[in-house]
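Entry 14. Structure prediction run on the chain below.
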Amino acid sequence: MENITQLGTQITEQTHCPDILIMSRIFKPQGSVIGEYVYNRCLQDPDRIIVITSGCSNDKNNDKNFEQPPEFPVYHCLNYNFPKNFLGGNLVSRLIKTCLKSSLKIFNIIFSFLLAIKLYFRYHYRYIEWCHGYDFLALLLLSYILPIRFFIYLHGKDLTDIAKTPFWRSLFKLTLKRAEGIVCQNSYVRDKLRNTFRLDTPTHIINPVVRPDKFTHSSSTNYLQDLRTQLRESYNISETAIVILSVGELLPNKGFEQVIDNIPLLLTLGIDVHYIICGQGHFETELKSQCQRLRVDKRVHFAGYVSEKELANYYAACDIFAILTLEEEINQSIENLEIFHLEAEYFGKPIIASRLGSILDIVHHEENGLLVNPESGYEVLQAFKKLCQDQQLREKLGRQGQELAKRKTYHRWLYNPETSYSCIVSY
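Output returned:
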């Protein structure tokens, strides 16, 4: 890895001529949905990409961050943040923390700016893809100083955080106006952008995709059947039972309790059903108490933290994937919601999901799943009953969802919009 202090003026031989600088606070090895999104984008044009990130580095001592060393250079940019409970919560501490946060924000902007300048003299890149709204002031300055064009990505929280402060909001609007284009992860973020700013800048929706090599042997039917059998046996679940799966952090408003409420009802209907929850969180105790109260603790299984590689076992073992996110959660976290839905689709599983937010980009009612009002007990029960009792419908929705999940959306179409057809949505 080369930090800004190590770049100097030496020019090393390049086997290709990268012309796109990718800037992202987070990158794949951190296990973040946005990091995975950016990493997938880089894999589409590895010969054109240079990456600046504070999330990882890929020098000779750090290739272990990746399954395989990336085919593009990755430079580490320092980015400081405070721990959540830093200095406590009294008034004086909050004032000190606010001042320090402002100072660190300026430091991060300056460092990103200087490293981007250094890399320009090394690679002479022509484009920048700024993969979040944060530290955008560095991008704005670069657009005036360097002969480059740029795209800026928005994921949700970055947009809402910046728009809260009038000063940053006005500068951010100027940055968006100067952009060649704005990339939104989903239509929900696009709508938030429209409600926040009036802009003429072209806006593109590029949904996340599932990287094929993320799950080993996921295309082998025999291999997936073996995974299904092994995992069911480990939980003492019969092959004929219906298994519902949810994945995510165990928090209120994620909808886990709504699924649990339906387990005794489905059992009453004579359906042999089990529910597996993958994830950790402070709401786990309440969920387990709910299971005991409803006497379904033998039917609801808490898997705890599950790694990416192990998650394939759970997708293979389940019959239905369900996340009934409530509206409060959608509003609090308008990013990172749809990746598990996509992965379930990739494994050919039908989905029961909330008719809310970014999920509508991924789950299409009666095409690859069923959309419901998560607060309507009747709607939720009818959806579970319908899929649990109709194997042909499960297989049909799963098959169609798998086809949708394997569609490709290429970021290079940003540079050639006339070739994008219907796979990238522009406004």
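Residues 1-15, 57-64, 419-423 have pLDDT under 50 and may be disordered.
Filed with the rest of this week's runs.
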